[in-house]
Amino acid sequence: MTLDRDPRHPARRQYVLKLDRRAEPSRAALSGRVENLATGQAFEFSDVESLLEGLARDLAAPVDRNDA
Q1: Cα 33 vs. chain centroid, distance in angstroms?
Q2: Could you tell me where the beta strands, DSSP code E, fall in the chain?
């Protein structure tokens, strides 16, 4: 077995999404918290726009080779 050095879903891009108990995705009412599993960095969001902004910000951050 060979280790894929460029995996399709790298650990650096794995997240845990925790929705607030008041979130109603069917009405596009999203709020909660997202945590990057590799880095431990987290952010809270209050709507879809802030969720996407937070993900974009996290993905734009420099990659520490230990987190890749």
Answers
A1: 9
A2: 15-19, 32-36, 42-45
